């Protein structure tokens, strides 16, 4: 169920206080990491609306580009209209191209769990509900799969969150979203959804991870 077009105006009035209270959850760094290599690496993460996910990771030092898209379903259904029907198995996701000599995969996961989304919500994030808004990691290499699974176990054992972590490690190809979804945060700074949910999240990232922020 895609609530963004329907609730954007209402969110400005009803949810602003909640959004502005957002902060980075203090969680430990991952115990293991993907080895750094020469050249760029790619990460694919899903955690609710890709507008906010994209905005947070675009401000991470060492990230060179972020693409909004869909992961988990087929190429034929990788479009916003189909994905919003909640029948495609796709999740709104982002593809991150990053320099592992500047920021590691495990560090990206720490940002992902701490502030980019709420990993305890099942098939929803904030005002958006449906399987396309689920919390999921799509590893691009066996090392990424191993690190992601280990970090979920580590955070669960540490009781880092008040509720169980819902994040799943999944398989699936990534497909870029439509052009109008790309860089949505930067191109639509006064959009009610951006103002209510995503600007506070980016501010919370900067406050919680000042050494990572650019």
Strand order of the largest sheet: 7-6-1-3-2-8
* Fraction of helical residues: 25-40%
The number of E-state strands comes to 8
Integer-rounded radius of gyration = 16 Å
Identify low-pLDDT runs: 5-21
Name the helix and strand elements from N-terminus to C-terminus, one letter apiece: HHEHEHEHEEEHEEHH
Write the layout of secondary structure elements.
Elements: H1 4-14, H2 16-20, E1 41-47, H3 50-58, E2 63-71, H4 80-83, E3 91-98, H5 105-116, E4 124-125, E5 128-129, E6 135-137, H6 142-157, E7 168-169, E8 174-176, H7 184-187, H8 192-208
Parallel strand pairs: 6-7
Antiparallel strand pairs: 1-3, 1-6, 2-3, 2-8, 4-5
List the keywords.
single chain; 214 residues; alpha+beta; six-stranded mixed sheet; two-stranded antiparallel sheet; 8 helices; 17% strand
Sum this structure up briefly.
The chain has 214 residues and is α+β, with helices and mostly antiparallel strands. It has helices spanning 4-14, 16-20, 50-58, 80-83, 105-116, 142-157, 184-187, 192-208, and strands at residues 41-47, 63-71, 91-98, 124-125, 128-129, 135-137, 168-169, 174-176. The strands form two sheets. It has a six-stranded mixed sheet. The chain has a two-stranded antiparallel ribbon with strand order 4-5.
């Amino acid at each position: 169920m895609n609530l963004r077009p329907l609730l954007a105006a209402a969110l400005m009035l009803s949810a602003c206080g909640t959004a502005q209270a957002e902060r980075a959850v203090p969680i430990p760094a991952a115990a293991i990491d993907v080895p750094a290599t020469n050249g760029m690496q790619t990460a694919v993460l899903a955690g609710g609306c890709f507008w906010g996910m994209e905005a947070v990771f675009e401000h991470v030092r060492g990230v060179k580009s972020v693409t909004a898209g869909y992961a988990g379903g087929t190429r034929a259904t990788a479009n916003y209209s189909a994905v919003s029907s909640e029948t495609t198995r796709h999740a709104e996701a982002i593809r991150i191209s990053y320099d592992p000599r500047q920021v590691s995969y495990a560090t990206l996961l720490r940002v992902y769990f701490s502030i980019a989304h709420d990993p305890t919500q099942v098939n929803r994030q904030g005002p958006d509900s449906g399987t396309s808004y689920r919390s999921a990691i799509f590893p691009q290499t066996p090392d990424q799969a191993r690190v992601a699974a280990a970090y979920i176990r580590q955070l669960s054992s540490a009781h880092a969150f008040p509720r169980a972590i819902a994040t799943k490690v999944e398989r699936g190809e990534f497909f870029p979203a439509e052009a109008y979804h790309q860089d949505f945060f930067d191109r639509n700074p006064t959009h009610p959804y951006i103002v209510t949910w995503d600007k506070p999240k980016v501010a919370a990232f900067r406050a919680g991870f000042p050494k990572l922020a650019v």
